[in-house]
Amino acid sequence: MLKSLTMAALVAASLAVSGTAQAQQTQMRAATDLTQYGTVVDIVNEDFSKFSAGSETAPDFNANINTTYSDSKIPYFENVDAKYTSQPRWGASFAYPAGGAVCLYSTDEDYVSHINTPIIDASGHGGLTFIRFRARLLENVGNYPGLGLHVIDFSQNPTNGSYLLIKQVKGVTTEWQEFEYIIYNGTSKMLVNINDENNRKVLIDDVRVQQVNQYVETPHLLPHRAYTGNSFKPAWNKVEGADKYLVNVYNSDTDGNIGDILVENMETTDTTCTVRGLLPGNIYRYNVTAVAGDRLSLPTNNAELYDLVTPVLDPVESVEDGKFTATWNKVPNALYYNYYVYEEKPVTEDGDVTVIDENFDNVTDWGGGSFGWTADQQPTYPNEQELGYLSNVNQTGFTATC
């Protein structure tokens, strides 16, 4: 057995780390009747009726719908003349009236055609936001790769947005279809951008961004617990007024596709439960719905469950010259293992105790030279320095970056 003054710990690691319930995922679903969940709140509801020139079959490619707002901080996304839309400050490029719809069409392969909503506030109602629009191809072009759907957040930087969503909208044909996407992390300043980078003529209509003032709020997922390979415990916050919760678990893959259902509408009155019947190493997705009487909340996002079983250490048979061989069981999907050894130093009497004694005098760069950094002379590209373990220190375990 390992000597009592030393404790060993082992962690299995994988690039496909376990997905927490906080991970915001975007899902596409069949058109949802939102009225069954509460009062629908329209943030954007644009039918493009003022894009009346031309027709669906013959858009007006000579029309110029753009203008300039002198106070705009994002002129590319705020350049549609307000007379064309029910809300001001839409944005567009290579977009043309098509008899009450918008035709996206760029003839230059270096330029993308697009239409985007104004900056909107979708931070209410937990940020759960529905994005809906209709689309069809003007011409049959065979295998169309799809539209681009981007949700861009400007709440942190008014001039340089960050993506909340980048999606390829597949399945667009010459027939009108409605596409619906859900995001779970709407912000106070964001916009929805629909674009085509394939130089095809694509019609867009009836763009809506909606939220729901629900009768029963959607639970907020918390990180799952107690994964054993064959079972786990999802967790969520308590929803005011909820009588119970329904848990669904599905087989899935690395692309987020939903397969066969493993657990359907498992009922619990608690804010956690134990789901059994898993196979170690498989990928699953799960969601939770709150229930109050005959009212159901909208389900949570489909959180990913792709976890690793804790390795089991074998007993250490012998220690010779301060060395021993550690072994453990193989963990499905683990790419590597981290093995840690800790030393216990019991304090048996009162007095000063030195826990760490390190001046870093012997620390060198990867080439063995001195760093030579001072407060006035620091590395040229600090953001390129990655976190790593320091060598040549008196006690192992120091990590550093800059």
Features:
402 residues; mainly beta; 0% helix
Structure description:
- By secondary structure, the chain is mainly β.
- The strands form six sheets. Strands 2, 3, 5, 6, 8, 11 and 13 form a seven-stranded antiparallel β-sheet that branches.
- It is extended, with a radius of gyration of 28 Å.
- The model is unreliable at 1-6 and 14-29 (pLDDT under 50).
- The protein is built from no helices and 24 strands.
- What distance lies between the first and last C-alpha atoms, to the nearest angstrom? 41 Å
Spatial extent as radius of gyration? 28 Å
Q: What's the multimeric state?
A: single chain
Name the structural class.
mainly beta
pLDDT averaged residue by residue: 87
DSSP, total strands: 24
**Percent of residues in helical segments?**
under 10%
Work out the helix count. 0
Beta strand %: 35-45%
H-E string: EEEEEEEEEEEEEEEEEEEEEEEE
Largest sheet: 7 strands, antiparallel
Question: Quick gist of this model?
Answer:
With 402 residues, this protein is an all-beta fold. It has strands at 6-13, 27-28, 38-46, 91-93, 95-97, 102-104, 113-116, 129-137, 147-153, 162-169, 177-183, 190-196, 202-214, 221-225, 231-236, 244-252, 258-268, 275-276, 284-292, 295-296, 303-305, 336-343, 388-389, 399-400. Strand 16 (244-252) and strand 17 form a beta hairpin.
